[in-house]
Design brief:
Layout (H helix, E strand, L loop, with lengths): L3 E7 L4 H10 L6 E8 L5 H8 L4 E3 L7 H14 L4 E4 L8 H5 L5 E5 L11 H7 L4 E8 L9 E8 L6 H27 L1
Parallel strand pairs: 1-2, 1-4, 2-3, 4-5
Antiparallel strand pairs: 5-6, 6-7
Helix pairs in contact: 1-6, 5-6
The protein binds 5-O-phosphono-beta-D-ribofuranosylamine.
């Protein structure tokens, strides 16, 4: 089976990235990770990627206009032959030009039950609102933040005494299961 070349964008610890790398090792997984890119050269996930033998692009966005940085990263992704992009804790808003260049081929995982709680502090906002459930969503990336079509979700209960951290930990377990599965299903459907 020919696997679709996948690029992963991270800014931090990269636990979802690690799960995607692990899942890609299976013979029947429809993607292979060919590049991990980060706007933060200190991102802990970069070392994880390198230890797994994956090429990395690690450049700070600081001092560069957003569109310029994004086009440099875009060039690295295209040079690596990337067909699909997975955002995995990429904490910088992408320029419209970058996003539209990957329409239908870039996915993100967001730690809320979209369309609830786009943006930051999703778990704290769910607790404050008195929600009974939290969760995570895998969605297509469009120029509007956290707004593209949702392709998969997982739910967890919000328990009495939960803090943003305890809820985040419960949701993260589901993220690690959901993202590799949802990405594989999407790529199988879209080639
Ligand atoms: C995850 O909760 C993800 O949903 C959000 O940022 C966090 C990244 O965590 N977008 P990690 O870097 O994958 O460990």
């Amino acid at each position: 089976m020919t696997k679709a070349p996948l690029g992963i964008l991270i800014s931090g610890r990269g636990s979802n990235m690690a799960r995607l790398i692990e899942a890609a090792r299976a013979d029947d997984c429809p993607y292979e990770v060919v590049l991990v890119a980060s706007n933060n050269p200190e991102a802990a996930g970069l070392a994880t990627a390198r230890n797994a033998g994956i090429a990395t692009f690690a450049h700070s966005h600081k001092g560069l206009p957003r569109a310029e940085f994004d086009m440099i990263m875009d060039g690295a992704l295209r040079d690596a032959g990337v067909r699909y992009i997975a955002l995995a804790g990429y904490m910088r808003i992408l320029s419209d030009a970058f996003v539209t260049g990957w329409t239908g081929r870039m996915l993100n995982i967001h730690p809320s039950l979209l369309p609830l709680y786009k943006g930051l502090d999703t778990h704290g906002r769910a607790i404050t609102a008195g929600d009974a459930e939290g969760g995570c969503s895998v969605h297509l990336v469009t120029p509007e933040l956290d707004d593209g079509r949702v392709i998969a979700q997982a739910r967890v209960p919000i328990l009495p005494g939960d803090t943003a951290d305890s809820l985040a930990a419960r949701v993260l377990v589901e993220e690690h299961r959901l993202y590799p599965e949802a990405l594989a299903a999407y790529i199988r459907d879209h080639g």
